[in-house]
Amino acid sequence: MKKSAFKWLIKEFCLIAGIIYLLTDCQNSREQNLQDEINKIGARWVPDRRVGICNIKLRSGDKGVKILTGETTDLNAKGEVIKTLGRKGIILIDSILFLPDTIRNTKYSGLVTLSVINLRREPDHASEMVSQAKLGTPVIVLKRNKSWILIQTPDNYISWTEESSVTLLSRIEMTRWQKATRIIYLENTGWLYDSPSSKSDVVGDLVGGSILEKVGEFKDYINVVMPDGRKGFVEKAKVTDFNDWKSKVLCTEENICKVARTFLGLPYLWGGSSAKGVDCSGFVQSVYYMNGLILQRDASMQALHGSVVDITNGFSMLKKGDLLFFGSRRNGTSHVTHVAIYIGNKKYINSSGRVMINSFDSTQTNYVSYRLSSLLSAKRIIGVENDMGIIPVSKHQWY
Fold it and tell me: Which residues contact 73 (CB under 8 A, 6 or more apart)?
């Protein structure tokens, strides 16, 4: 072959390779643009991944067909993604998994079966504990990973826990539990006995807010059954009928302060939300739950709900039970990192090292200067209605 012909072949090969590269690059660029659009839709419908999932991916199939994979808890997000790509003339195969997966998992509901279970960010014992759930709390099981399950609690919080700590139920079984006679434990801590005597062996421990099914009575004790079938006896004076409680419990200023004070001295526990230990927002959530209201889990989420209380000119507008939010401001944006309950007279109760009462009054021994300097805002919870972040237990469908 002549040298000139060889050079021509090399030139043609490079030209063809360049065209293929450009076509591939354009295709990859277009796919990335489409993926970016999908991500924006997901972020719009599920802006907070603590309470929702939207992880939708686009990949290429045969003959120009595009395949949507991934998972979401929001049908609106899924629907808008499909509609948006459809308008562009893209042929799609929908392989998005909507959670919970009720087809493969008929038992996608569950009840917490221990006094307190730990909820983690990832399905691993070494992963950060982000929250807890109490005995008898109804949950939705979104998916499984070996011995772990991804659950959603009544406050919509999503996290992982061990499957052994939740009793899985079918829809029919959950309906039966909802219609059963149930009791709620009112003391912060206590015991479930194997016979109607405080001197008998124990079946397990209890924390405030535990819900148990009643199956009988014996003198000063209620005979109950736990979600996993274990039976025992609890002191009658420490419980009340759950349905009566949720319909009659009053969330008042005095009741909030009264319950909050019963937590005094409890140790701080990151992710804790029971009498075994609480972080700042877990403390607030637990106090309000015992007064019949379900709040969001984290301080930054709680700060988004309720009615604004003006504290620009001091504390005269505050009422007992109002929530105080602390943190920092950067570039005009507030970053909430701590929450407390106002109890009047410039005092507030919060979990910081332990549950304690502090003051905004610099003449008091329990004054904390950095709390005053980091105070960002205040919200009123009591009396607020039609707020998705403040749900009465009596109106929550899971109960």
Answer: 46, 52, 53, 54, 98, 99, 142, 152, 158
Query: Which residues make Cβ contacts (< 8 Å) with residue 325, sequence separation at least 6?
Result: 299, 302, 303, 334, 336, 338, 339, 375, 376, 377, 378, 379
Residues 111-133 have pLDDT tens digits of: 999 999 999 999 999 999 999 99
Question: Contacts from 167-172 at CB under 8 Å and sequence distance 24+?
Answer: 167/110, 167/111, 167/113, 167/227, 167/228, 168/107, 168/108, 168/109, 168/110, 168/141, 169/107, 169/109, 169/110, 169/111, 170/106, 170/107, 170/109, 171/106, 171/109
What is the mean predicted confidence (pLDDT) over 70-85? 97
Read off φ and ψ for residue 17, nearest 5 degrees.
-60, -40
Average pLDDT across the chain, whole number: 94
Q: Which helix or strand (DSSP H or E) is residue 338 part of?
A: strand 333-344
- In the chain, the domains with their CATH numbers are 3-98 (3.30.1340.30), 109-177 (2.30.30.40), 180-247 (2.30.30.40), 249-395 (3.90.1720.10)
| pLDDT tens, position by position, 32-43 | 999 999 999 999
| Eight-class DSSP state of 17 | H
Burial class (CB in 10 A: 0-12, 13-18, 19+), 110: buried
Strand, helix or coil for residue 31:
helix
- Return the bridge partners of 141, or none: 151
Q: What's the token pair of residue 244? A: 């009566």
